[in-house]
Amino acid sequence: MPIDDAELIGQGGFGLVYKVKHKYLEQFFAIKIFRQHPFSTGIHDKERFFKEANILFNLSHPAIIRIYDIGLYNDKPFIKMEHFQGKNLNEILVRYGRIKYDKALRLVKTIADALSYAVEKLGVVHRDLKPSNVMAAIPERFKVIDFGLGIYIEDELRTRLTQTGETVASSAYTAPELQANPQLINCACDIYSLGAIWYECLLGRVPQGTGIEEALNAEINVPPAHKKVILRSLQFDPNKRFRNWNEFQTAISDL
Prior knowledge:
This protein is α+β, with helices and mostly antiparallel strands. It has helices at about 45-55, 90-95, 100-120, 150-165, 175-180, 185-205, 210-215, 225-235, 245-250, and strands at about 5-10, 15-20, 30-35, 65-75, 75-80, 85-90, 135, 140-145. α3 (about 100-120) runs antiparallel to α6 (about 185-205), α3 packs antiparallel against α9 (about 245-250) and α6 crosses α8 (about 225-235).
């Protein structure tokens, strides 16, 4: 799997993503090469990575990036996946600032459907949902990436806590209970993250600090029913959020 001449199309805390053309199929794929850490602790970490990544092969949904292969490249784990011709939501928000409420709702419905499918089909939750993990392309096509690789997510959250000394969300998209317990697996955390993304799409800023509710309610171009769902999704107490994706999808179905 030579990548010397491949195009670097993304990078983040977990590793680098390259666009690679298959020599014989004449098709493009995306290959994510993960950083070696946290595999320094032993073979069991690699076993866990491959076990978690193997589950992702069975995720088949139009709004979830398909996984085609996993392995090691220069002793670093990689995932070969569908190449989606578009931009991530973070790039879109940086360029345009906001998204109109009707388009934001269609995005939220698509993501919620994908996350609900993952839970019902395989019991998989995302735990790292943020704008950079949502791909978008015209006409209103959306794909969720980076599902369920807990060993990296937990390592990043622990590092963040060690660096800040806080359990309060250092990331505006991460539920507070997940910040406090990086091993927590609960779809309520993903509901919080989607609420945070929705909030940013409408206001052009993340829901962080004081005045979150006041700022949202001040937006005259956002329907009150949308605001109600967003604020419930962003409750710090998970018992006050939607209990599952079915509740969330029922709440947005008639918006």
